[in-house]
Design brief:
The complex is a heterodimer. By secondary structure, chain A is mostly helical. In chain A, 77% of the residues lie in helices and 1% in strands. A two-stranded antiparallel sheet of chain A has the order 1-2. In chain A, a hairpin with a 2-residue loop joins β1 (163-164) and β2. Chain B is an alpha/beta fold. Chain B folds into two domains: 2-134, Rossmann fold; 150-270, Nitrogenase molybdenum iron protein domain (Rossmann fold). In chain B, strands 7, 8, 9, 10 and 11 form a five-stranded mixed β-sheet that branches. A four-stranded parallel β-sheet of chain B has the order 4-3-5-6, sandwiched between helices. A two-stranded antiparallel ribbon of chain B has the order 1-2. Classes of the chains: A mainly alpha, B alpha/beta. Chains A and B meet through α4 and α8 of A and α7 of B.
């Protein structure tokens, strides 16, 4: 599998050296289609929830950006504008962040399995968030900040562990990821056992991914970081393409390898950090979505980074709508849904390719 | 040896008189003391903080993670467990060592009374247990008597704000609310403690919100969930904080909880 990925990425890299304009057109078309799908999905899922809202009035209220009530009662407006829509936007931001970060890690580390969750980076962000909650509980902004620090720390840790004398091999990277993941998982278990019972319940739930509890400021941070982080990755997409050939080749072709590496690590850690701080660890998004995108659009990062971000948003918006509605008025953690869809899908993709 | 059936329908073989037992839940510890068997309690959990004497008993861990080694070392003749599901593997392990596990599983106040009588039989304190239950029944009946003509208040019970947990169909709190002259808006939701949709909580338009907080819960759950801040209950100032230990522990003090709930929901009846 590794070998086949290498040839695909080689082809993409060489391809990207030659065909700039065709790629731009393809990128614009793919992103427009995905963006429209995302907007349509957001509009449709804003009509779905445990409480039924009159569809026409709800659609009218959404399209008027809340300026007009369109005959909705004040409770219905609260449900739509204070509960449902913020949650949908958070789902979109989290999905986009994780998928874009996954694409970035996969290109930089030249490994199709590099994913925030599997590499232990989500867990690093989770530990950071927990520390923020325990020590600076009253300062909300400390959560994304500490989550970012945790994500960055575990990224660097995995990267250092994975570097052997012969450079970073895919096997070493996954091994390092497993070590960091399990170590940080134990750290999380250790901290939760020290906390009291009522907080354990919300923590274990949050660790599975929970989009229900966002605040305006966390949502705003998540959206800003998603846009900036994805843009930073997309800006360096061409360098990422060349890096997929190998660091030495990329260097020979004029890529400032260490600078790009720092930027990608920082951007991806920011993306993972803000999404974990707002919603816990939603698994599989960073793995499955970039793969699906590469299968359908090829592995040129100038396309895959923005396309994966938009597809990731779409994926989590749909997954969370399922989590909110399947057993309504009860709810499921969204992480359970993404894993339930993601894992079989991933197995299918592997089988089909292998 | 005598045979006894627990609330999960399992049959236990116990010695004629139980001299040493362990409680793995705070409500069972409270029952044991209430029926006068506290002096034979050789181990309990870090959650067991009532009555005061319960704090001095050897701790075997918490309710979720008890230490099997310490339990074995204390040589109990029976271990009391609340709700079977979480501790299935653990129960099997104790069974293999010949230690009986008595499981209680109350879903309403009547179930709590049955648990008290059941523990009375297990711990050879039946007479005392029956007395306790008789008094509790009288107090509960008095509450029902006073609230029965009052209009039922629509209550949302918030177990935690983030994520939003409430009391469902299988929780004894739902029964307490009904007996106190209320009507839980989540009374028909499956499970005992379901994770609940914020949308549905808003749409239910609760007239009163009950927050179990304080006691061993400390400052947790002292605030109404953000999405309910504009509910009729909050606007009318009908948010009632009640000592969590009285509402989440299906033991003798649940009747104290019932009385507090009734006084909160129907001040017009009790302040006369």
């Amino acid at each position: 599998m590794m070998a086949s990925t290498e040839t695909i990425s080689d082809r993409a890299a060489i391809h990207s050296l030659h065909t700039g304009r065709a790629t731009l057109r393809k990128t614009v078309i793919a992103c427009c289609v995905l963006l429209v799908s995302l907007i349509v999905a957001l509009l449709l899922t804003s009509l779905l929830g445990s409480e039924r809202l009159p569809p026409r009035a709800a659609m009218c209220a959404v399209l008027s950006f809340g300026q007009s009530s369109c005959g909705l009662t004040s409770d219905q407006q609260t449900i739509l504008f204070q509960i449902r829509l913020p949650r949908l936007f958070l789902a979109a931001a989290v999905g986009a962040s994780l998928a874009a970060a996954g694409t970035g890690y996969q290109a930089l580390l030249r490994n199709p399995l590099a994913e925030p969750y599997l590499l232990g980076i989500s867990n690093g962000a989770a530990v950071g968030t927990m520390i923020a909650l325990v020590f600076f509980g009253s300062y909300e902004w400390s959560r994304p900040l500490m989550a970012f620090a945790g994500a960055l720390f575990s990224t660097l840790l995995v990267y250092q562990l994975a570097r052997g004398r012969a450079g970073t091999t895919p096997d070493r990277l996954i091994l390092a990821g497993v070590i960091v993941t399990t170590f940080l998982s134990s750290a999380i278990v250790f901290v939760t056992t020290l906390m009291d019972a009522t907080r354990i319940r919300s923590f274990t739930f949050w660790l599975l991914g929970d989009l229900s509890g966002t605040t305006t400021s966390l949502l705003a941070i998540a959206i800003v970081v998603t846009v900036c982080g994805t843009a930073a990755l997309a800006w360096h997409a061409r360098s990422l393409n060349l890096l997929m050939l190998g660091e030495r080749d990329a260097f020979d072709l004029g890529v400032e390898v260490s600078r790009v590496r720092v930027i990608v690590f920082l951007a991806a850690s920011l993306l993972v950090g803000s999404s974990v701080a707002a919603s816990g660890s939603v698994g599989y998004v960073g793995l499955v979505v970039p793969h699906l995108v590469r299968l359908s659009l090829g592995s040129d990062n100038r396309i895959t980074v923005p396309a994966a971000a938009l597809s990731g948003a779409l994926f989590v918006v749909i997954a969370d709508t399922l989590a909110r509605t399947i057993i309504a008025p009860r709810e499921l953690p969204v992480g359970a849904i993404t894993a339930l869809i993601g894992a079989p899908l991933f197995v299918y993709l592997l089988k089909r390719r292998g | 040896m005598r045979q006894i059936q627990d609330e999960a329908g399992r049959t236990l073989h116990l010695p004629p008189r139980v001299e040493r037992f362990i409680s793995l839940a705070p409500n069972l510890t409270e029952i044991a003391y209430a029926i006068g068997a506290g002096d034979r309690l050789v181990g309990n959990t870090t959650f067991c903080d009532y009555p005061e004497d319960a704090k001095k008993v050897v701790k075997v861990g918490d309710t979720l993670q008890p230490s099997i080694e310490r339990i074995l070392a204390l040589r109990p003749q029976v271990v009391l467990v609340s709700t079977a599901s979480q501790l299935e593997a653990f129960t099997k392990q104790l069974d293999e060592h010949g230690i009986g596990v008595y499981v209680t599983d109350p879903h309403d106040l009547e179930g709590v009374f049955r648990s008290i009588e059941g523990l009375g039989a297990v711990l050879n304190q039946s007479e005392r247990a029956n007395q306790v239950v008789k008094q509790l029944r009288e107090r509960a009946a008095a509450v029902t008597e006073q609230t029965k003509s009052a209009r039922p208040v629509r209550v949302f019970y918030q177990l935690s704000a983030q994520p939003l947990y409430t009391a469902g169909r299988d929780s004894f709190v739902t029964d307490l609310i009904r007996r106190a002259g209320g009507m839980s808006v989540t009374a028909d939701v499956p499970e005992a403690w379901p994770l609940y949709s914020q949308e549905s909580a808003v749409a239910a338009r609760p007239e009163a919100i009950v927050l179990p907080t304080g006691g061993s819960m400390g400052a947790a759950n002292a605030d109404v969930a953000e999405s309910l801040k504009r509910s009729p209950a909050v606007l009318a100032g009908k948010v009632y904080k009640i000592n969590g230990d009285l509402l989440v522990r299906p033991g003798p003090r649940a009747v104290d909880g019932l009385e507090e709930l009734a006084r909160a929901l129907h001040p017009e009846v009790f302040n006369r």
